[in-house]
């Protein structure tokens, strides 16, 4: 499916920009968490970086017929601090997406009857809710000077659904099979 309306296309480009930057930011903060002695929080950052890549890829795919150069305005969180501070930046970014950005983009896509964009925004919105919670759990541990307790992080490569320790038989958001999940 490809997007037809200019407003939804703008929102897809902005979301693509935001997800792309979140991807890079989480890889960077992940490396810093590793250096600071929080390997599980580093793993969480790297896994969620991949989920943001999945979202960016979905948005990019919806824009496949909108060829050309664009200047993209997108929200991004900046700053380097302690692992607790970096996690706060991550929480803030995720909450912005959950409470402001994706609900508005999703409603616009519904109003403009853009089925593909609705799917792409819906997938991202559902995953970002989980990301906000997981980063918040990680921050709770880090505030006590502890690493997060986890065995592995699993990401659905279709929608970015994120889950700790065991992948479900079927993705609750998009229906992808357990075997498809990428393990971190
Ligand atoms: Fe996220
Ligand atoms: Fe999924």
Automatic annotation (TrEMBL):
Where would I find the Rubredoxin-like domain in this sequence? 151-184
* Cofactor section: Fe(3+)
Tell me yes or no: is Transcription regulation among this UniProt entry's keywords: no
GO molecular function, one example? iron ion binding
* Keywords, comma-separated and alphabetical: Electron transport, Transport
Q: In what residue span(s) does the Ferritin-like diiron domain sit? A: 2-146
Specify whether NAD is a keyword of the entry.
Answer: no
Give the matching CDD domains.
rubredoxin_SM (cd00729), Rubrerythrin (cd01041)
Q: What is this protein called?
A: Rubrerythrin
Origin species: Acetivibrio thermocellus AD2
């Amino acid at each position: 499916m490809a997007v037809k309306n200019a407003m939804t296309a703008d929102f897809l480009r902005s979301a693509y920009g935001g997800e792309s930057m979140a991807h890079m930011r989480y890889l960077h903060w992940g490396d810093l968490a590793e250096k600071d002695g929080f390997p599980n929080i580093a793993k969480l950052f790297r896994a969620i970086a991949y989920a943001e890549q999945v979202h960016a890829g979905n948005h990019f795919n919806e824009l496949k017929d909108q060829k050309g150069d664009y200047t993209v305005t997108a929200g991004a969180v900046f700053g380097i601090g302690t692992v607790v501070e970096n996690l706060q930046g991550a929480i803030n970014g995720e909450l912005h997406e959950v409470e402001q950005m994706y609900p508005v983009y999703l409603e616009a896509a519904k109003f403009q009857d853009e089925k593909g964009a609705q799917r792409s925004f819906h997938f991202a919105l559902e995953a970002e809710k989980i990301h906000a919670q997981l980063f918040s759990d990680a921050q709770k541990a880090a505030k006590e000077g502890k690493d997060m307790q986890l065995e592995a992080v699993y990401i659905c490569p279709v929608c970015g659904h994120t889950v700790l320790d065991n992948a479900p038989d079927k993705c609750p958001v998009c229906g992808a099979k357990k075997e498809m999940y990428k393990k971190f």
